From TrEMBL:
Record InterPro entries: Beta-prop_RSE1/DDB1/CPSF1_1st, RSE1/DDB1/CFT1, WD40/YVTN_repeat-like_dom_sf
Naturally occurring in which organism (per UniProt): Amphora coffeiformis
RSE1/DDB1/CPSF1 first beta-propeller domain ranges (all copies): 77-214
Gene3D superfamilies, per database record: YVTN repeat-like/Quinoprotein amine dehydrogenase
Record-given protein name: RSE1/DDB1/CPSF1 first beta-propeller domain-containing protein
One of the Pfam families matching this protein, by short name: Beta-prop_RSE1_1st
Length: 234
């Protein structure tokens, strides 16, 4: 027996957002991750400001607005996201970290590419590749809280709150479909991850920068307390 929670009004809090060209090349779009586990896609559209006819052209302001394109229910707790483009691809995909214990690569497809400004036109997303790496749930040792991509589209790094970090190399199979190679472990004990970013390393190997906080073990704390007690007695 399963319980499905459907609300009349969805959550409006945005966890994070990523920018890229998701549906077609040349379209600057924004994908927002909401607290209800929903992906929402918006296109950034430039239009006239609607000035009076008697005004000069210089007085007209060019407005920028967000046009809703589509939404996708993931039925999960979304934790992080990053835009990634495979080598040779013309548009971006989204790498998602969630409570599923897996790294998901999803892409957006338009339902009407010839008339995307029509009200009925929209976009739908589908998973392209999913790899499992840990237990389900939001745990401090399960990767997915932080995710970063190499700017050249060669690798992804997924990190947990504590210790665990996995690096995936982006490949393609014989049919040309995007795939992920077996992960490379970059774990560090007694560390808490604060943030994770991908660095532009040119043609050299992909490189990621991690802001970490090292915490002491119980033995270190006991030794420190003993040293402080000895110093106080002296």
């Amino acid at each position: 027996m399963k319980l499905l929670d459907c609300r009349l009004q969805g959550a409006t809090a945005i966890i994070t957002s990523v920018a890229g060209e998701f549906t077609a090349a040349g379209k600057f779009e924004l994908c927002a991750l909401t607290a209800g586990g929903v992906l929402q896609l918006y296109e950034i559209v430039k239009g006239g400001g609607g000035g009076d006819e008697g005004q000069d052209d210089d007085d007209e302001e060019i407005g920028v607005r967000l046009q809703f394109r589509g939404r996708c229910e993931t039925r999960s707790i979304l934790r992080s996201a990053v835009a990634v483009r495979w080598t040779g691809a013309s548009r971006d995909m989204i790498a998602l970290g969630s409570d599923s214990g897996a790294l998901s690569i999803v892409e957006w497809n338009t339902t009407d590419a010839n008339n995307h400004h029509h009200a009925s036109a929209g976009a739908t997303c589908k998973p392209v590749h999913v790899v499992d790496f840990g237990k389900t749930g939001v745990r401090r040792g399960v990767p997915g809280q932080y995710i970063a991509a190499d700017p050249a589209g060669r690798a992804l790094c997924v990190a947990a709150v504590e210790k665990t970090k996995l690096v995936y190399v982006l490949n393609r199979n014989a049919a040309g479909e995007p795939t992920l190679a077996s992960p490379l472990e970059a774990h560090r004990s007694r560390t808490l991850t604060v943030d994770l970013v991908g660095l532009d390393n040119g043609y050299d190997n992909p490189m990621f920068a991690v802001l970490e906080l090292v915490y002491p073990t119980a033995e270190d704390e006991e030794e420190t307390s003993q040293q402080q007690g000895t110093a106080a007695a002296a």
